[in-house]
From TrEMBL:
It comes from Bradyrhizobium barranii subsp. apii. Keywords: Plasmid. This is ParA family protein. It comes from the Bacteria. InterPro entries: AAA_dom, DNA_Partitioning_ATPase, P-loop_NTPase. SUPFAM superfamilies: P-loop containing nucleoside triphosphate hydrolases. Pfam families: AAA_31.
Length: 229
């Protein structure tokens, strides 16, 4: 999206900080934890079109703080809306105050899912959480883009069976795309560059794949923005 000229705010709300390590050259003046405090000031930065709010150790304190932070994140993002065309939030894997705040702030939700036993079994709970947040906080306008099968080992009979099960039992909630397990993704993370910028064959295959998925997401967002206008 930044490559197409959009102004992107990226927030790493996951204390593990993987996105922070990968995107640290885009770090802006505001941390992700700071966005859960009232009247946080967000400053657009970077010639790349990306302003990044990094994770740090204080993020875990948010979950132990006041429930008012659930609405605070949304309020801070609304105040900075004129500075950006889109905001992307990397959420923590477990449900807590931060996750709920991100769901409340989000207009769209995409849920990567690993095709393993516990992940597939947790789909019902995930969907119930999204619906529950919508109802409790009046976010019925939130769009669930779907479950995105990720790190999919196409040679694994077990994972292929799980994908078939997922499509059979929750097909209407599955995003039309997959992220296959490829070495190119690991190489891109190690070099901290977009996977499609690497020349190796595995990276090029991964690049075509992920760009197709991201393209579908962008198309969906553009369609809804056009309809809303």
């Amino acid at each position: 999206m930044a490559e197409s000229g959009r102004r992107v705010l990226m927030i790493d709300a996951d204390a593990q900080g993987n996105a922070t390590d990968t995107l640290k050259r885009h770090v802006g003046e505001t941390s992700a934890a700071g966005l859960f405090h009232p009247a946080a000031r967000i400053v657009a930065s970077g010639d790349s079109g990306i302003t990044f709010a990094p994770a740090d150790s204080s993020l875990t304190d948010v979950d132990r703080g006041s429930a008012a932070a659930v609405m605070t994140l949304q309020q801070n993002l609304a105040a900075a809306a004129e500075l950006f065309d889109i905001c992307v939030i990397d959420t923590p894997p477990s449900l807590g105050l931060r996750s709920v705040a991100c769901l409340v702030a989000a207009s769209h939700v995409l849920a990567p899912i690993y095709l393993e036993d516990y992940s597939v079994k947790g789909v019902k709970g995930l969907l119930q959480t999204v619906i529950g947040v919508q109802q409790r906080y009046g976010r019925e306008g939130m769009t669930f883009l779907g479950l995105l099968p990720s790190n999919f080992n196409t040679k694994s009979p077990r994972q292929r069976t799980h994908l078939e099960q997922l499509l059979r039992e929750a097909g209407k909630y599955v995003f039309p795309g997959q992220i296959v397990a490829r070495d190119g993704y690991a190489e891109a993370v190690a070099e901290r560059v977009p996977v499609w910028s690497l020349k190796r064959r595995s990276a090029q295959e991964a690049g075509r794949e992920i760009r197709a998925v991201l393209g579908k997401i962008a198309e969906r967002l553009d369609e809804e923005m056009t309809d809303g206008a």
